[in-house]
């Protein structure tokens, strides 16, 4: 590992920007990447770090979903006119290898469209560099990377870029996983299957590692198990929906009349040759104790039901159910009760505190309603609800604070990170990561 320190640019995809730092920091921690921010994660489509551990950085890059490419940063300039001088003065360009190798120059602009002709002009500006090797568009020894950054406001594009980056391309990320594992070609999906990008993102943020045992207490069609299994975990889950787990619902694909036998969580893992990682799925109610106390998981990764596209249910006795004779009420199982959001999260945290290994992670989504929190005033919300069409109070969490550090608390779990994904103007969901600690 004892290399000299180098600067690297990490180019992000323009997607799920709120989760960039959660993912990068989680993978950096998993692969013990010792680094320093030169330009930290911001709204820009890139960040710059410094490290002497390129091997660990490549491990991060092999998994990262929200980045597209990695390159060595030789020059970062804010002056278009001085840029060429800065490249000429950088030490790397005078290295014998780079002076004599075959090469090509890849040009990119962010925040402004530049034509093919303008790209060629940029390359011509670089023609004074001391590069003596052959230009080779296919399989060159080195690809140099030139990027102009024009800011994020498409209505106010400056004449000259705010920043120009130049360096050596190292690798692209593994984002093609998102299309390889797309739900469009997935054997078995359900109403709320998690898409491939978010599933891989969650597995990365949860730092799923080879041979981990991973559990999803609201497993549905098992999308989160697929990504965990891809990273080498053994996976299992629970869902209350017996027909869903046992292939008794309508077929996944529109137009097909009959379900295939392997339209199941197991079938999904088989589709991707990950069946050796499948433990099992249990039809059961995650509000009830299902496991012996000594069963432990490395990670719990889940998307609980919020009651928007799927019902929130748990098994229980409805004392007031008039259809059940009074003498049977005590033993009346299973009647379905509404599973309140507060209870879902309390149960999930208690379960995680009991069944995670020390330092194990639980990662989950929780809904976040803006108009409820805007005034940060629960009483006010209750009054408004009498006069306006707002969601039923019971369908909302019973807390008047949006801060996950207050909303999600357990003495044996500590909040590691969280990020928000906007769904509509007033409604978001937050991804929360907590880690088991021993007191
Ligand atoms: C948001 S979906 C999960 C989707 C899943 N991540 C996937 O990719 O298909 C929530 C799941 O929780 C299940 N569920 C609802 N109440 C439950 C309970 N009490 N115990 C276990 N599962 C429950 C629902 O049947 C539904 O499949």
Automatic annotation (TrEMBL):
CDD domains: AdoMet_MTases
Annotated Ribosomal RNA large subunit methyltransferase K/L-like methyltransferase domain residues: 185-314
Entry EC no(s): 2.1.1.214
tRNA (guanine(10)-N(2))-methyltransferase TRMT11 N-terminal domain span: 7-175
The keyword Protein biosynthesis appears for this protein: no
Compartment(s) of residence: Cytoplasm
GO biological process: methylation
Protein name (record): tRNA (guanine(10)-N(2))-methyltransferase TRMT11
GO molecular function, one term: methyltransferase activity
Enzyme class: transferase
Family: Belongs to the class I-like SAM-binding methyltransferase superfamily. TRM11 methyltransferase family.
tRNA-binding among keywords: yes
Family annotation (InterPro entries): DNA_methylase_N6_adenine_CS, RlmKL-like_Mtase, SAM-dependent_MTases_sf, TRMT11, TRMT11_N
Pfam families referenced in this protein's UniProt entry, alphabetically: Tmrp11_N, UPF0020
Subunit structure and binding partners: Part of the heterodimeric TRMT11-TRM112 methyltransferase complex; this complex forms an active tRNA methyltransferase, where TRMT112 acts as an activator of the catalytic subunit TRMT11.
Its job: Catalytic subunit of the TRMT11-TRM112 methyltransferase complex, that specifically mediates the S-adenosyl-L-methionine-dependent N(2)-methylation of guanosine nucleotide at position 10 (m2G10) in tRNAs. This is one of the major tRNA (guanine-N(2))-methyltransferases.
Key words, A-Z: Cytoplasm, Methyltransferase, RNA-binding, S-adenosyl-L-methionine, Transferase, tRNA processing, tRNA-binding
Superkingdom: Eukaryota
Parts forming coiled coils: none
Catalytic activity, reaction form: guanosine(10) in tRNA + S-adenosyl-L-methionine = N(2)-methylguanosine(10) in tRNA + S-adenosyl-L-homocysteine + H(+)
């Amino acid at each position: 590992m004892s290399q000299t320190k180098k600067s690297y640019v990490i180019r992000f995809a323009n997607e799920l920007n709120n989760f960039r730092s959660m993912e990068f920091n989680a993978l950096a921690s998993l692969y013990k990447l010792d680094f320093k921010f030169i330009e930290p994660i911001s709204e820009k489509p890139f960040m710059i770090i410094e490290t002497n551990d390129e091997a660990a950085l490549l491990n991060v890059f092999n998994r990262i979903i929200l980045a597209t490419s990695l390159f060595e940063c030789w020059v970062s300039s804010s002056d278009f006119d001085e840029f060429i001088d800065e490249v000429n003065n950088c030490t790397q360009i005078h290295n014998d290898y780079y002076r004599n190798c075959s090469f090509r120059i890849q040009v990119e602009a962010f925040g402004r469209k530049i034509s093919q002709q303008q790209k060629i002009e940029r390359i011509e500006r670089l023609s004074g560099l001391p590069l003596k090797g052959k230009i080779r568009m296919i399989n060159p020894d080195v690809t140099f990377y030139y990027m102009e950054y024009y800011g994020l406001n498409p209505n106010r594009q400056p004449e000259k870029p705010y920043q120009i980056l130049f360096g050596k391309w190292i690798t692209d990320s593994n984002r093609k996983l998102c299309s390889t594992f797309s739900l469009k070609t997935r054997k078995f999906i359900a109403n709320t299957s998690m898409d491939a990008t978010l599933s891989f993102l969650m597995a990365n943020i949860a730092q799923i590692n080879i041979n981990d045992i991973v559990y999803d207490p609201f497993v549905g069609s098992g999308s989160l198990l697929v990504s965990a299994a891809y990273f080498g975990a053994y996976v299992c889950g629970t869902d209350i929906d017996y027909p869903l787990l046992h292939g008794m619902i309508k077929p996944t694909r529109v137009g097909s009349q009959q379900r295939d036998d392997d339209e199941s969580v197991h079938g999904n893992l088989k589709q991707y040759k990950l069946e050796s990682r499948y433990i099992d799925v249990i039809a059961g109610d995650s509000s009830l104790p299902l496991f012996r106390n000594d069963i432990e998981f490395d990670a719990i990764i889940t998307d609980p039901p919020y009651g928007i596209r799927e019902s929130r249910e748990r098994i229980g006795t409805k004392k007031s159910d008039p259809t059940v004779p009074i003498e049977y009420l005590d033993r009346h199982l299973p009647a379905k009760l509404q599973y309140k959001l507060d209870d879902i999260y309390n149960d999930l945290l208690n379960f995680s505190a009991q069944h995670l290994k020390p330092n194990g992670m639980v990662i989950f989504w929780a809904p976040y309603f803006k108009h409820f929190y805007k005034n940060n005033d629960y009483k006010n919300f209750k009054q408004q609800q009498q006069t306006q069409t707002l969601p039923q109070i019971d369908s909302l969490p019973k807390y008047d604070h949006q801060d996950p550090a207050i909303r999600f608390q357990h003495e044996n779990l500590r909040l590691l990170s969280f990020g928000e994904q906007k769904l509509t103007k007033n409604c978001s969901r937050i991804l929360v990561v907590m880690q088991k600690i021993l007191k």
